[in-house]
Specification:
The protein is α+β, with helices and mostly antiparallel strands. The chain is 50% helix and 17% strand. α1 packs parallel to α4 (75-88), α7 (241-275) runs parallel beside α9 and α9 (321-346) packs across α11. Residues 238-385 form the Acyl-CoA dehydrogenase/oxidase C-terminal domain.
């Protein structure tokens, strides 16, 4: 196995010493704390609560945020961490994303100073867990059609409704819940609320069984006459701009993470191909196997370049939301193809949890769906290219 097998274009030369040091620390963390256990966690549909605290100690939670115990790392550093975590498992990277890019970002961007002081230090340490309630049983790609409603009463608010596919909800200490109010019309009426999980009327039920993301938690939330004080509302979030800005943080991390899963699947397949012998030679000697490995390398290297350029734009403050869609759409789609192809190199052994590609492929089906489906990101890009939004079923007005 040559150096070109791992970094064909010497992409490491595009990163700073500090960026590479952080990447290597996260890689070592994954090697020590995730890889030895991930097959068991996946098979048993188990999320390790202790790993959350360890990630907090490692500075991985809300690492792209500043203050309140957060590490204040760059976008590229956060991306590298996401890539290494997802090389371990999408479920563990998803935890970091839900905690940091969604729940913590919402509080950091839109919360009051009291909100930030109350929740962010504990969340950064992994001592408190947050979740982000936007998707509903009948409202996924079109969050403006949500039916969860917040009614203003004399002493605060009353929330009623349901949310679905909410990561971490069953173990969360606080939920960021997005709901329509009577203040404004349509999407403009949407506000964000901080709901402590022990509030009467708040309940969360895990969605089981699942075929992917088994080392992670997704749940359905029910809100039955949940009474909140007046200051539970996020003061600086009105309309869909609030939740969408958080989703873009998560989408950004996904484009990096998907390449971690793809890289891990490729490296598993490569090692196997060099060791497994058929017809008297390693299967890596066969032309068809080499073609598969080459195709994987091509897309992994290109995907990392896409993620890196997006990260540099983000750090420079010039990244446009529409540009994030390119990376999310391309990198997840290619990562699934890579993982499936890597499984074919492994033959029948590839359907066991002794190897990672099929586990990654199953996980990535969820990653492909959440934070915007392929179709949604295609239409975001289409609108950016043509200037014509095409999200409705009918012709453009």
């Amino acid at each position: 196995m040559t150096d070109l097998a791992h970094d064909y274009l010497d992409l490491d030369g595009l990163f700073t010493t500090e960026e590479l040091e952080l990447r290597d620390r996260v890689r070592a963390f994954v090697q020590e704390r995730i890889r030895p256990h991930i097959a068991e966690w996946y098979e048993n549909a188990q999320f390790s609560r202790e790993i959350a605290r360890e990630m907090g100690k490692a500075g991985l939670l809300g690492m792209h945020l500043s203050g309140y115990g957060c590490a204040g790392r760059s976008a590229v550093e956060y991306g590298l961490a996401a890539m290494e975590l997802e090389a371990g498992d999408s479920g563990l990277r998803t935890f970091v994303s839900v905690q940091g890019s969604l729940a913590m970002s919402a509080i950091h961007k839109f919360g009051s100073e009291d909100h930030k002081q109350r929740w962010l230090p504990g969340m950064a340490a992994g001592e408190l867990i947050g979740c982000f309630g936007l998707t509903e049983p009948g409202a996924g790609s079109d969050p403006s059609s949500m039916t969860t409603h917040a009614e203003r009463v004399d002493d605060g608010w009353v929330l009623r409704g349901a949310k679905r596919w909410i990561g971490l909800a069953t173990i969360a200490d606080v939920a960021v819940i997005w709901a329509k109010t009577d203040e404004g019309e349509g999407a403009a009426s949407i506000r964000g609320f901080l709901v402590p999980a022990d509030t009467p009327g708040f309940s969360a039920t895990a969605i089981e069984p699942k075929l992917g993301m088994r080392a992670s938690i997704q749940a359905e939330i029910t809100l039955t006459d949940v009474r909140l004080p007046a200051d539970a509302v996020l003061p600086d979030a009105r309309g869909l701009r609030g939740p969408f800005s958080c989703l873009n943080e998560a989408r950004y991390g996904i484009m990096w993470g998907a390449m971690g899963a793809a890289r891990d699947a490729y490296e598993d397949a490569l090692a196997y191909a060099l060791e497994r012998r058929q017809f008297g030679v390693p299967i890596a000697a066969f032309q068809l196997t080499q073609q598969k490995l080459v195709d994987m390398v091509l897309e992994i290297q290109k995907g990392i370049l896409v993620a890196l350029q997006t990260g540099r734009l983000k750090d420079a403050g010039t990244l446009r939301p529409q540009q994030i869609s390119l990376g999310k759409l391309n990198n997840v789609r290619e990562a699934i193809a890579i993982c499936r192809e890597a499984r074919t190199v492994l033959g029948g052994n590839g359907i066991t949890l002794d190897h990672s590609p099929l586990r990654h492929a199953n996980n990535l089906e969820s990653v492909r769906t959440y934070e915007g489906t392929d179709e949604v990101h295609t239409l975001i890009m289409g609108a950016a290219i043509t200037g014509i939004p095409a999200f409705s079923a009918g012709p453009p007005s």
